Amino acid sequence: MSTLKIAIQKSGRLNEDSLQLLKECGISIDHRNAQLKATARNFPLEVFYLRNGDIPQYLEDGVVDIAILGENTLIEKGENLPIVERLGFSKCKVSLAVPKGVDYKDISYFEGKRIATSYTNTLEKYLKEKKINATFHKIAGSVEIAPNIGLADGICDIVSSGGTLFANGLKEAEVMFWSEAVLTKSPVLSAEKQVLLDKLQFRIQAILKGRAFRYVLLNAPNNKVEDIIKVIPGMKSPTVLPLAEEGWSSVHTVIPKDKFWEILDELKALGAEGILTTEIEKMVL
Ligand SMILES: Nc1ncnc2c1ncn2[C@@H]1O[C@H](COP(=O)(O)OP(=O)(O)OP(=O)(O)O)[C@@H](O)[C@H]1O
Ligand SMILES: O=P(O)(O)OC[C@H]1O[C@H](OP(=O)(O)OP(=O)(O)O)[C@H](O)[C@@H]1O
Ligand SMILES: [Mg+2]
Asked: What pathway does the annotation place this protein in (predicted)?
């Protein structure tokens, strides 16, 4: 029987959330510290703990079958690698930044300038599209230091809170694109392994859906139920059950997490009482 080989980041920002996702998929991994390969006990899966930057090549060569990577890494090093699923964590931007004293107007600032970055392919493509000529300094990390030590006039790097830019006297000039963790696969994946990937992806989708919704239970007078149902359409339609007390019903449904508080306010205004909400572990439509 074949085994699916998944690469995840050995240590760093993607490691914990990637392992958590596999755990929520019901996959338990026997992993001892410092071991770079581990086997799952209850799913035909081998986990390889690697450096992010190395993973695209392993996928291209079919050494590993699938991986969890930042979209930014695919853009930089894995042009042929498809996004199988967006995973919703490690959200960040890849941006151009300049010293905060610069009177930045538009991208033409970078014409003839020196830019420090770890993302040279991404930057080259971006500036080519914008018809800007600049020189690059490739550095592996702590890119934000470059303008301060006179190495560059600007940088291209990951921005999340903006704290690192601020602490180093820089400001964001252009957002090149947004990135998040994604599941990707090898271009040479066998049909047999694709079946395993489909099985894993089904589990991941159930988790991601569950994360995006909340389960809600509430009590309402019968004459308000119709209005309440209008604001909480649910998966198919809400469950409405009679309460022991005459004239009252219990309504059960799911609501999107990003509209949670607005919907709760509406429900209260419509006369809902005893509102309980809870997280959803998995959700299959
Ligand atoms: N500040 C941040 N906020 C949110 N996501 C981030 C942030 N910095 C990086 N990321 C995302 O997490 C990924 C991993 O970043 P991390 O800094 O842990 O690894 P790396 O230095 O790029 O790679 P390596 O595994 O080779 O050390 C990045 O590719 C990006 O997608
Ligand atoms: O906008 P912020 O929230 O400050 O995050 C951005 C910083 O986070 C990342 O670095 P990381 O901490 O991963 O260090 P690294 O350079 O060693 O990878 C990135 O390279 C930025 O420096
Ligand atoms: Mg980093």
From this structure: Amino-acid biosynthesis; L-histidine biosynthesis; L-histidine from 5-phospho-alpha-D-ribose 1-diphosphate: step 1/9
Cross-sheet strand order for the sheet of 66-70: 29-30, 37-40, 45-50, 4-9, 66-70, 181-185, 83-86
- How many other C-beta atoms can be found within 10 angstroms of the C-beta atom of residue 20? 12
Which residue owns the Cα nearest ligand 2 atom 21?
A: 158
The pLDDT assigned to 32 comes to: 81
Q: Choose one of 9, 13, 120 to mutate for the ligand 1 pocket test, by most ligand atoms within 8 angstroms of C-beta.
A: 13
Looking at the whole model, is its pTM more than 0.90? yes
Do residues 85 and 66 touch, judged by C-beta distance below 8 A?
Answer: no
Task: Report how far ligand 3's centroid is from the alpha carbon of 262 (Å).
Answer: 35
Cβ 162 under 6 angstroms from ligand 2: yes
Q: CATH for 213-279?
A: 3.30.70.120
The ipTM assigned to this model is 0.96
Residue 160 CB–ligand 2 contact under 6 Å: yes
Collect the ranges in the chain with pLDDT lower than 70. none
Q: Where are the chain's structural domains?
A: 4-89+180-189, 92-179, 213-279
What is the Cα–Cα distance from 136 to 188, expressed in whole angstroms? 33
Q: What is the pLDDT of residue 148?
A: 95
Report the C-alpha gap between 203 and 200 in whole angstroms: 5
Domain boundaries 4-89+180-189, corresponding CATH code: 3.40.190.10
Q: What is the pLDDT of residues 181-239, one digit of tens each?
A: 999 999 999 999 999 999 999 999 999 999 999 999 999 999 999 999 998 877 778 89
How far is 38 from 199, CA to CA, in rounded Å?
20
